[in-house]
Amino acid sequence: MATTVRAEKNAVVPAQNGPAAPWTAEELAEVRERLAVEIEELNAEIARAESEIASNDVTDGAGDDQADAGARTYQREREIALTLNSRDLVAQNERAIARIDAGTYGVCESCHQPIGKERLQAFPRATLCVACKQREERR
Hints:
- It is a single chain.
- This protein is an all-alpha fold.
- The protein has a single domain, classed as Four Helix Bundle (Hemerythrin (Met), subunit A), CATH 1.20.120.910.
- The chain has four helices and no strands.
- The chain is elongated, with a radius of gyration of 21 Å.
- This is Zinc finger DksA/TraR C4-type domain-containing protein.
- GO terms for molecular function: zinc ion binding.
């Protein structure tokens, strides 16, 4: 029997597979704060990377040999890939915060069973329980 998940005072999110302690409102607030801080850090990283990409676009590379041009292209593509990854992490964090606010944090999106508390403490963006994640990765 699943316990209703609420993001209000004294809310509980049941732990998967057993008698682990339920989430308290304070623990959910800590997770929410951790995610918000990470969003701020990632947004700062994205801004820095975009600034660096833009400043490197201004240089014309006149007189560079093929190796220099290749190195610049590799560096630019690497910065773009890291920026895209950071944007994805921001989206995942924002989704986790929305799930906390909606009262659905800690419930597997696939099987609708509780996600283990330890899993969420280690990876607060998790949307799948361990069993469903393993099934997904095998595909």
